[in-house]
Amino acid sequence: MRKKESTNFENEQFLFKVCELNSAIAMISGRWKSQIVYSISQGSDRFHLLQQELPNISETVLARQLKELETHAILVKQEISNTVPAGIQYVLTNKGCDLVPILKNLCEWGKLYEGGKEISVAPTI
Predict the structure, then answer these.
(1) How many angstroms separate the first and last alpha carbons of the chain?
(2) Digit-coded pLDDT (tens) for 47-84
(3) pLDDT-based confidence at 112, cuts 50/70/90?
(4) DSSP letters of the chain?
(5) What distance in Å separates the CA atoms of residue 103 and residue 38, rounded to the nearest whole number?
(6) Domain-by-domain residue ranges, the chain?
(7) Distances from the Cα of 120 to the Cαs of 66, 105, 112, 113, 115, in angstroms?
(8) How far apart are CA 51 and CA 73, in angstroms?
(9) Which one has a higher pLDDT value, 79 or 13?
(10) Is the dihedral of CA 33, 39, 40, 41 positive or negative?
(11) Which domain of life does the protein's organism represent (predicted)?
(12) What is the pLDDT of residue 12?
């Protein structure tokens, strides 16, 4: 979190006002967030399942990333009834579900241009 009087904070706020893309990127920025959202969409909806699917993420980082995604209303925590002790699952909101195809498209775009593949100049529109 930036100090509200800092130049970085002011610049960030300006960019958010100029283009919503900056705000969207800020919501999903972070090394693990996109993979967490995708994993939940594929059924890994509990903390331990996410840990199994993403073995290189620490518990602390996973918890923080989940909390940030929850803060941005991309997912919600739901208690699983009839479990002892009470279990928690993570469920994508409509906002989170709308994000999944965008992430898939970004993944395809990344595959297309990974590793410095040759890029040609697009014709002017």
Answers:
(1) 39
(2) 999 999 999 999 999 999 999 999 999 999 999 888 87
(3) confident
(4) ---TTSHHHHHHHHHHHH-HHHHHHHHH-STTHHHHHHHHHTT--SHHHHHHHSTTS-HHHHHHHHHHHHHTTSEEEEEETT-SSPEEEEEE-HHHHHHHHHHHHHHHHHHHHGGG---PPPPP-
(5) 8
(6) 1-30, 32-111
(7) 38, 20, 12, 11, 15
(8) 21
(9) 79
(10) positive
(11) Bacteria
(12) 74
Distances (CA, A) of 31 to 13, 87, 118: 22, 26, 26
Q: Which residues pair with 92 in a beta bridge?
A: 75
- Which residue's structure tokens are 């993403």? 54
- Nearest-angstrom CA–CA distance, 2 and 4: 6
Q: The pTM is what?
A: 0.79
Which two three-digit tokens encode residue 110? 């990344």
Residue 83: both structure tokens together: 């479990």
